[in-house]
Write a structure and sequence with these properties.
The protein has 97 residues and is α/β, with parallel strands linked by helices. It is 42% helix and 19% strand. Strand 3 and strand 4 form a beta hairpin.
């Protein structure tokens, strides 16, 4: 079964909260994670203390709320990072209202 990253947009109200939630799931114990999209990309790939089993599926619940609170631009950039690319491999990104 594919590893899944679950983001609940109802559990944070700012970008720092977004990173805390994602880092808690992806970073190995004792690793601080990061507070920017480059660090998120590293965690998703399994580098720099990221998860050994990088997620194949990313599910973002309450996405509309997140987009409003975090800003349209940040949400769009985060989605691009979460979805992956041809170099690192694509992930299934599910945006739930």
């Amino acid at each position: 079964m594919a590893a899944e990253l679950y983001i609940d947009g109802g559990q944070f109200e700012d970008i720092a909260g977004f990173y805390r939630q994602v880092t808690a799931q992806l970073a190995r114990p004792g690793v601080a994670g990061g507070d920017n999209l480059d660090a998120l990309c590293d965690l998703l790939r399994g580098g720099f203390g990221g998860a050994v089993n990088a997620p194949a599926v990313v599910r973002w619940h309450n996405f509309s709320r997140s987009r409003t609170l975090l800003g349209e631009g940040f949400a769009a950039r985060a989605c691009r990072v979460l979805a992956g690319d041809a170099e690192e491999g694509f992930r299934t990104l599910i945006l739930e209202e």
